Every structure is written in C-alpha cells, then in structure tokens.
C-alpha cells in the first residue's frame, strides 16, 4: 500500500518550505522560530508533555518537519475513533485510555451530522451524542483531538453523514450552492459552539487540529472566515494543505501495517493517522450501502469488542517510539544506501540535530531475505520476512553518553526514570537480537535473564538475545565514571504489548506485565496503578526515586527491589474469573403486517401525490412521486398502500424500486401475497444504489375476483426495505419509484408510512416503519404476555414480518469488564447454546450444505433494550454474525435485558431465526465504571 494521494502531494509541497499561516490559519505561524529567536528550524528536543485542559494558552505552529507545541516538536500519532459507533459514553473513556496506553497521543474524531439532526433546524448533542462529554473525556485521558465534523465525512455512514432530511432539500452537498451552504453553516456553527470551548490553544481542552470538508478550493476562504467567526482558532487541515498528513486505511495484517506505517516514516511524515484505531458498530440504520455488516472495520487494531488484535503490536511499538524518542520529529533524507540483496529496499534518514540515523528496510518479495545493510559505517546482516519491513537506527543516544552503534532489532523507547536510563528494543519471536553500544567509559554489563549474552570488543558492548515468545530480557549496564545505570530491555511482539511507559507530573514510569495500564498516580512513597489483567501476570515497575509501595486497582501489592532497579510483585496479579452466560430461552412470537389487509385504516398516512422532487432520480411521467425521502421517511422500512380504481382485467403488476444493499420488496393484493423480490446479492458492498423491477402476476383467484367486482377498489400493499443512502449519490431515490400494470390501467391513490417520530433518546436512525416499530414492540417494558411461546429455531414460512422477544439477566462481578456478543446463525444447529465461546461456530463451514439454501434468505433486525444493533441477512451469503452488545446498553449487573428480533421473510423462506445465543467475546479484571445508557420503554 502506497502513500495516500493527500500524503504524496503534501510531502512534495513541503520540500524546502515552511507552512504559510493562511494555509492552516489561526495560530499557525508563517515561519516557526527557535526559542532563541534566530532564523532556522527548531532543534530537536524533549517533546511537549501530555495535553490536558490546564488553563494555559498554548501556541500551535508547524514547520516542514512537524507540529510545534509551545516551541517543542511533536510527532502526531493519531488513531480514528467514531463516538457514534459506540453508543455507550462510559466506554468512550475505555477506548481512549486503551489508545493512549498503546502509544496514540491523539484521537481523530468524525462527527455524523445525521446523528444529531432529525429535522431541519433541530439539533441534539445529548446522551450518546454528547460532543462536550467526549471532548472532556479526551482531555481527561490526555489525548489530543483532531476534529472532523464534515459536513460530509464518508466513513461508510448513511449519506456520508449527511442527515436524511437533506436528501429532500434544494441544493447539492459539497458544492458552493447557497441552498446547501445555509444548512452546512448551521451544522458547523452548532458543532463549533461546543468545539471552541475545548481548544488546546485556549487551554480549555485538547482540540489541536480541525479538519474541514472543502472539496472546492473556492470555498476554502469562505469556510476559513466562517470558522474563525465561530471562534475556531486551532489550525485547519484541508485537501490542499501543504503538510504531510499520512492517513493509513485498512491493512490486512501486522506485516502490512508495518510496511505502510514505516513507509510514511521513511517519507518524512510526522502527522500520522490510523483509520481506524477502534472499529465500532454501524448500529441501527447508520451504515451506508458500502458497509456489508454492522461491524464497521474488522481490520482495526482495537476490535468492535474493544479487544486488541494481532495488528496492535507494530502500532504500539511505533507509537511509543514517536512519543519517547524525539529524534523522529525532524528527519531528513540522508545519503542513499543499498542492501547487498536487491530484493531489499532501504530508505536512509538522519536527524541533523542529534546525529541519529534511521533505516527503513523493506522486503516486497514473497520469501524471507537475509542481506547486509550499511548502517553507521558497518555492514550489518539483517533478515526481513516476506512482505514485511523493519526499522533500524544508529547513533541513538541512550543516556550518560552511551549511544547505539547499530542493532538488528527496532528501538521502541528510550526514557529516563529517576537515575535510570531505560531503552527497549523489539523484534519477532525466534530472531537473534544483536545490539552494539558505544560507551564513553568501560561498561560493566550484567545479564539479568539467562538468555542474554554480552561481550566488549574494541570499546563497544555487544549484547546478544534470542527472542522468545512473550519473553522480556533485561541487561544492566553500569560504568565507574557515571552514576546513571542503563537498563536494556529486549522483547518480542507479544512481550512488547506488556510494556507500558507513562508520564506523570512527577516523572516517568515504566510498567511491565499487565494486559493494560490505564492510569498512574504518584502519592508520596506510593505509586497507584490502574489497569486490566486477563490472565495471571507478573508486575514490574520502574518508578522515580523514593517510590517504595505499589497499589494495583486500589489494592496494595507486596513488592521487592530487583537487580534491574525495579519493584517486583511478590505474587502474580490475578486474572479475570470464569464467566458463564445464560442460554436464551423463553421466546415469545407475534406476526404483524396488518397493513396488507384491505380493511386496514391508513387514513393517518401521508398521501403520496407530489409531482416534483429534488431527488436525482427522475419522476416517471404521469406518476406521482413515491420516493420515501420526499415524505419525510429517511430510515428503515417503508409501507405503501395503493387503492386501485378500475382494476377489472388486471393481470400483473410491476413495481420498480430503489434501495441500498440487500434490499427487499414484498407485495400483497387485498391481503393475499403476490410475492417477494430481493435485490442482487453479488458484491453487496460495491454499489451505492440498487434498482430493480419486481414483476408479479396475479393469481387466478385474484383475477376472477376483480372480474366479478368491476366497481371494487382493491388495495395493493407494498413493503420496501431498505432506505440506506449512498455516501456520494445521496439524493438517489429510496423506496418505490414507479408502478406499471398489465391487463388494465387502474387509477391509483397512494399513501405512504415510514418511521414514527424519532426516538428522543436513541436518535433518528434507531427505528423504521414496521408496525411493531411504530407500536413499540422492540422496547423494554412492552407487554408481550399475550404473545405465543415458541422455541428456536423456527422452520414455518409466511410472507411478512414476525417478531420474537425474550429477556435474560447477566451477573458480571463489578470489577470485571465482560464483552458479550449475540450470535445469529441460520445454520440451525444447536451447539454453543450454553453461551460458551465457540470460535469454530462463527466461522463459515464449507461442509454445511444448508448454508446455500435459499429458503433462509430472510432479514432480521436485532434490538437490545430498544437499541437497534443492526441487521442480519440469512440465505446464501448468511454467514453467522456476532453482534457486539456494548456495556451500558447491555445491563451486566443482575438486571434484566430485553432482546427483540424482527424477521422479514418471503413465503419461500423460513420466518424465524436459527440459532440465537450469547457469546463471551472477552473479559478483563479492571475496566472502567459503566453508567447504564438510558433505554426508555413505551410511552404510557
């Protein structure tokens, strides 16, 4: 994967120049100055401390190398997180703390306009949409914020984040059209009223950068003035900003993540953004057609269940390197070097201030390659695995005059803790690490773990360590001419994920052992640690002088001093206790769709009689507008009822409709099913709009009935799902687009009904127009006592909508963070019903022939405590899916949870789900306090 288009253009524009103040605006200086006031670049030095709402005004500037915070260089290591994809504000803190622990110093935040605005002029920034709370939480977790409010954000969100009501208004988004700009300005002003209070420049928050949506350069000046008028004075980023903004999209594995991020590093980029750091859930009607499942980004390093994945190690290592080794904030291309094997490509960089050299070594071949690479005057033999990359350094200062001559492993951090200098290096398990140090005085090395070996040769200290799986090796280096001791730490990927540097106001700390370190506080002689454990693990702490006592999550830990000058816990920290989830039983069922009956009262429905539309879809000649958006129905399922006059002789009806991915249409005539039509299943995520015509021939009985009653007015009832909008062509029609008849030319009076008023708590994208949704069948507290008791799976068939409800209770200990999922699988087997983890059960099985049976081509909408968790699609592509149930919406502390599932099925498909079970996705002893998310029941 190469640099993004923006990154390539920005890097070229940066060469030999400084960034003009107009380009970013506000507090960005036209030329960054050293503290002395002399012309020239700011020298490399200690990075700024962790940010916070400290009440002090800060100056944010930028030169051609990096951001400058109060005159100090900062390498931005940002990860993207969408708060709207985690509808539990308590868990925002959990994810932000994890991001910070794993090396991120910034969070990039996109805001979805459609989450906040159910109608023109209406805005809601409360509950799960509380931007002020998120920005406060980011400051409390000491994370910078890059704010990206759009209006257009993409991100596989319905209409790219534009609100549904905008699809039916005059004007075109992302253009200078005044009709659109009026709405866009209003949105930005509402966001800016919150964001301005949290700007780092004012010392009232940590909003550091503001990324704007300005695809046309002509609009940039106007937008710049608009934002400045709203009080936004942090730098603005946009498509033409001459700054190297390196954004990495999805990567397949850890090796590809290393290649891409090291390529950015090799090209001098110091503003890094990972898209995405936390994947999250496209719950409700949030996903665009390009999002095939509710799981937004399965490749994210922190997955939907808030667990680190196998791609975390390289990101953690690079993030800690950029945070703790300031040399990488000012790197210039250095003398070209070549490897002895042409399959290895080398990019050589140097810091002119410190003399540190970096070598990004990349292997794009399909085999491991061992080659010699000139580094610091020595040909060093290194091995780079197939389609992987490595970073090596020379001349890196390790404290007390000691310097890295070269190493065959990557530096991860170099820091001072009290009178200790600590340097950590990382590589792959099974490799031999070779570190060579230049020491100004004769070193006195001591191996503290058996696998290490060392030798002093011609004034250089050679340290050799075979890297073991999840093993940390320590070597102590002293000298008679210095009172500072160097501790060398060598780790493989797994062990590196147990190394946690932390900066406190009283000094730096390094912790090794637990699964996560959330927070550190120094209190007199006590260091108070907060974090998570999964399994029993050791605890080792390097802390400033005078620290003699340790607590872990509030409990005292017995420790003793080690030869590595650390505090070692006498006993392992405990892991998470075993958790058992209940089976889901006690199901109750009720069928709906009374709208298909000829006598159903639709007098309260909107009359579909408009003749013009702002949609980009043409209105058929001689027909009314049937597009759902034109009548205010933007999300979920939509019902149509057409009363026909003059239908005698009618033989067939053709219904043209337009949907997002996995659309479906069902039709009835006077309550009798005509049939079901489904959009094509190929390449679900590759199209923004799906169009088709469903042709239905009337049954013989229906034709005879119409002939016997020539004056009758039969009712054609049509249910269409789903109304998700394309990210780009957001004004394409959704719902019915035209209707044609054969055998007769009846006049039709159409009425349309979609979702009821937006849920004031759950927001406008939570529910659609099904009868059960309009009447609260999905809500907790709804009385389903009269429903039919049933067991799952179901095999009966009917065209229409069938609802299933049950309740369950969890009893998770208060000091345990359990991540729970709900598995839907139409394979119809019963394994895993006890709720135990069953990874094979969630994997597609080629040996299960019932996977491809069309009689399971149904749609299921899942609701937990009234919150729409997303859609499951059965049938040929219906792989099992695990819906992650976020704590807060999920009640885990001995409280009842209501689960409701709405199944839409044609007469050729079963009308019920297959296996439905809870699954433990992960657990940790620790976590954050979780406040229940408001989940109201039916209005009385």
From TrEMBL:
Disordered: region residues: 32-54, 820-857
Basic and acidic residues biased stretches: 825-857
UniProt-listed Enzyme Commission number(s): 3.2.1.23
Keyword Cytoplasm among record annotations: no
Pfam families named in the record: BetaGal_ABD2, BetaGal_dom3, Glyco_hydro_35
EC category: hydrolase
Low complexity: bias regions: 32-42
Beta-galactosidase domain ranges (all copies): 325-499
InterPro entries membership: Betagal_dom2, Betagal_dom2_sf, BetaGal_dom3, BetaGal_dom3_sf, BetaGal_jelly_roll_dom, Galactose-bd-like_sf, GH, Gly_Hdrlase_35_cat
PROSITE patterns: TAT
NADP as UniProt keyword: no
Catalyses which reaction(s): Hydrolysis of terminal non-reducing beta-D-galactose residues in beta-D-galactosides
PANTHER family for the chain: BETA-GALACTOSIDASE RELATED (PTHR23421)
Family named by the database record: Belongs to the glycosyl hydrolase 35 family.
Protein name: beta-galactosidase
């Amino acid at each position: 994967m190469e640099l993004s288009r923006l990154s390539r253009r920005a890097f070229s524009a940066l060469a030999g120049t400084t960034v003009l103040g107009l380009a970013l605006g506000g507090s960005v200086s036209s030329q960054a100055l050293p503290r002395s006031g002399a012309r020239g670049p700011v020298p490399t030095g200690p990075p700024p401390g962790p940010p916070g709402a400290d009440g002090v005004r800060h100056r944010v500037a930028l030169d051609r190398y990096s951001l400058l915070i109060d005159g100090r260089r900062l390498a931005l290591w940002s990860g993207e997180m969408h708060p709207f994809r985690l509808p539990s504000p308590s868990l925002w803190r959990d994810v932000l703390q994890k991001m910070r622990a794993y090396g991120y110093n910034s969070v990039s935040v996109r805001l979805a306009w459609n989450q906040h605005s159910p109608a023109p002029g209406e805005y809601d920034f409360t509950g799960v949409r509380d931007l002020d709370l998120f920005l406060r939480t980011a400051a409390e977790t000491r994370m910078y914020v890059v704010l990206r409010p759009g209006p257009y954000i993409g991100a596989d969100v319905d209409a790219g984040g534009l609100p549904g009501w905008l699809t039916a208004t005059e004007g075109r988004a992302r253009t200078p059209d005044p009709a659109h700009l009026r709405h866009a300005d209003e949105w930005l002003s509402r966001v800016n009223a919150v964001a301005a209070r949290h700007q780092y420049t004012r010392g009232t928050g940590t909003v550091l950068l503001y990324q704007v949506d300005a695809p046309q350069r002509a609009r940039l000046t106007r937008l710049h003035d608009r934002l400045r008028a709203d009080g936004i004075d942090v730098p603005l980023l946009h498509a033409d900003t001459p700054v190297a903004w390196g954004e990495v999209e999805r990567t397949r594995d850890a090796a590809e993540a290393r290649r891409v991020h090291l390529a950015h590093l090799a090209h001098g980029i110091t503003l890094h953004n990972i898209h995405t750091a936390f994947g999250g859930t496209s719950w409700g009607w949030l996903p665009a057609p390009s999002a095939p499942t509710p799981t937004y980004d399965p490749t994210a390093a922190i997955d939907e269940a808030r667990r680190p994945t196998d791609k975390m190690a390289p990101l953690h290592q690079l993030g800690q390197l950029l945070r703790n080794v300031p040399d990488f904030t000012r790197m210039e291309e250095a003398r070209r070097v070549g490897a002895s094997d042409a399959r290895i490509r080398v990019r050589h960089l140097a810091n002119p201030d410190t003399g540190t050299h970096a070598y990004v070594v990349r292997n794009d071949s399909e085999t491991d390659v061992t080659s010699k690479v000139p580094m610091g005057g020595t040909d060093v033999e290194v091995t780079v695995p197939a389609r992987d990359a490595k970073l090596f350094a020379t001349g890196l200062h390790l404290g007390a005059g000691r310097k890295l001559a070269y190493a065959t492993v990557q530096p991860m951090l170099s820091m001072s803790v009290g009178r200790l200098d600590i340097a950590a290096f990382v590589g792959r398990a099974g490799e031999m690490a070779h570190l060579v140090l230049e020491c100004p005085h004769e070193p006195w090395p001591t191996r503290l773990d058996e696998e290490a070996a060392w030798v002093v040769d011609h004034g250089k200290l050679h340290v050799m360590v075979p890297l073991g799986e999840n093993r940390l090796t320590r070597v102590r280096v002293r000298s008679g001419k210095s009172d500072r001791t160097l501790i060398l730490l060598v780790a493989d990927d797994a062990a590196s994920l147990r190394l946690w540097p932390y900066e406190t106001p009283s000094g730096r700390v390094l912790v090794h052992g637990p699964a996560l370190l959330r927070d550190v506080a120094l209190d007199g002689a006590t260091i108070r640690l907060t974090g998570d454990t999964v399994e029993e693990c050791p605890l080792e702490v390097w802390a400033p002088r005078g620290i003699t006592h340790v607590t872990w999550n509030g409990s005292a830990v017995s420790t003793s001093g080690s030869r590595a000058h650390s505090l070692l816990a006498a006993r392992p920290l405990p892991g998470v206790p075993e958790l058992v989830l209940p089976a889901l039983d006690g199901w109750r069922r009720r069928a709906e769709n009374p709208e298909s009956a000829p006598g159903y009262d639709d007098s309260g429905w909107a009359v579909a009689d408009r003749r013009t539309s702002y949609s980009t879809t043409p209105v058929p000649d001689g027909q009314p507008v049937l597009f759902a958006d034109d009548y205010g129905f933007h999300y979920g399922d939509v019902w149509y009822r057409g009363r026909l006059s003059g239908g005698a002789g009618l033989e067939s009806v053709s219904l043209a409709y337009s949907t997002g991915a996995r659309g479906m249409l069902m039709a009835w005539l006077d309550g009798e099913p005509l049939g079901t039509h489904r959009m094509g299943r190929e390449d679900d995520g590759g199209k923004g709009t799906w169009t088709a015509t469903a042709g239905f021939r009337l049954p013989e009985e229906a034709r005879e009935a119409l002939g016997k009653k020539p004056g009758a007015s039969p009712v054609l009832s049509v249910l269409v799902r789903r109304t998700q909008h394309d990210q780009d062509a957001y004004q394409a029609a959704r719902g019915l687009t035209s209707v044609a008849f054969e055998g007769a030319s009846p006049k039709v009076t159409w009425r349309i009904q979609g979702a009821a008023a937006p849920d004031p708590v759950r927001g406008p994208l939570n529910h659609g127009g099904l009868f059960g949704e309009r009447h609260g069948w999905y809500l907790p507290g709804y009385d389903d006592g009269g429903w039919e008791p049933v067991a799952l799976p179901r095999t009966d068939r009917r065209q229409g909508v069938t609802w299933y409800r049950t309740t369950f209770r969890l009893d998770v200990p208060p000091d345990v963070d359990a991540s729970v999922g709900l598995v839907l699988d139409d394979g119809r087997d019963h394994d895993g019903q006890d709720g135990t983890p069953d990874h094979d059960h969630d994997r597609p099985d080629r040996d299960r022939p019932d996977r491809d049976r069309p009689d399971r081509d149904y749609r299921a909408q899942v609701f937990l405590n009234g919150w729409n968790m997303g859609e499951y699609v059965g049938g040929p592509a219906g792989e099992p899916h695990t819906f992650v149930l976020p704590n807060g919406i999920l009640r885990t502390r001995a409280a009842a949870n209501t689960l409701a599932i709405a199944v839409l099925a044609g007469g050729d498909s079963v009308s019920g789900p297959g296996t439905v079970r809870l699954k433990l996705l992960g657990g940790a002893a620790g976590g954050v306090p979780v406040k229940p998310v408001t989940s109201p029941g039916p209005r009385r």
